[in-house]
């Protein structure tokens, strides 16, 4: 939220759910932080109704080769995994809830750890233009890692991570879970 000035209302209109002149302008802010230093590496600001992934895509240009990008389910999309790997970077994202997979499919590389093939979507997703969509490869291989959150007195929760860090010898299952846990 920001001060209710005419300039701010013009640039960052308040949500449509608020009655006119009964709220504050709200900006959506996307930031890339360094896990090593804790500093902000890049920042972008847009209007409230901008989806997080659109902000993130504007920040990809600040990634350097060998960076590992951590993110939640909103970022775990086919096009983004491809884009990040083309930059020479890797990603660890929580698997989006609409993507269903089982341990029966894919190449099992360890307990709760497998390599799976993702196929290009049949239609162009929102946020991509036709040229960007057409440039995507027909498939990519990603690694899916499962782990469980056990809290006494609560239902055990399974968490699925998707990563482009495919080499189990270089990045163990436990290391990937640990890196994501730092997020």
From TrEMBL:
Domain of life: Bacteria
InterPro entries assigned to the protein according to its UniProt record, in alphabetical order: RNaseH-like_sf
Listed name of the protein: Transposase
Origin species: Nostoc flagelliforme FACHB-838
